[in-house]
Design brief:
Blueprint: H1 2-15, H2 26-35, H3 45-52, H4 55-71, H5 75-83, H6 89-105, H7 109-124, H8 129-141, H9 144-152, H10 163-171, E1 174-177, E2 180-183, H11 185-195, H12 224-231
Antiparallel strand pairs: 1-2
Helix pairs in contact: 1-2, 1-6, 4-7, 7-8, 7-11, 9-11
Amino acid sequence: MLEEQVATLTGILKNEDIKKYAGDSFYNLIKVVLFHDNGAAMDSVRDVKDIVFHIPTALFWDKMQRYLYGTFKSFDEQVEMSNKFSGDNVDYSVFVKRQMQLIDKIDEDAKVDCFANLTRCFLLTEMNVALYYKLANFLNLCTSEELNYIKDFGKDEKSNLNVMIASLYQYGLFEQDGAYYVLSDFGKALKADSLNFDEPAMCRNRILTYDQMEPLNIADPISVDEIQEIMNM
């Protein structure tokens, strides 16, 4: 059943302007995806709500609506997205299914907006699909407070260690630069390609592939002898 729903949604994104499903008409999209119903079998918006809108389903489709309208500004962009997969329906269906799985995991509206920005970056640039998925997983891994910290942190800023940086360091989004801490290439990519995507300054030197990235600069673990030496000082 899920594969049929993915195929239906993929077909809509390839062939129909989702703007026609704006407002309450979005329930018609849900009706088509879930029940393959284009006709009068379930004409009432109330009927669709009554059948599918227990809380988990309601939350998923609320996020899906926010994501689709945040990602695609026109039908031309929907077509452009499908064209990135060279006409291979299987690959595009796999991509759509994975997007649905990622959206299902998102727990805040602000993260949905960040995911929409990331997908727009993938749509409008030459972003590598592997990096796209990696950054999408960072959005789920981080709290909104952590994402806001990265958003407000300067691309070339240096900072002493604090609790927020310590947490983000564990994720690989910060690294050491001498005695200070800076955004890693993963952190810079997340910032430019998602969190601050619409800022003009971010258009320059975006990180779009793994080939543009340097390995994380991670300090070696302190040895037992070094700990003993520190304690004896």
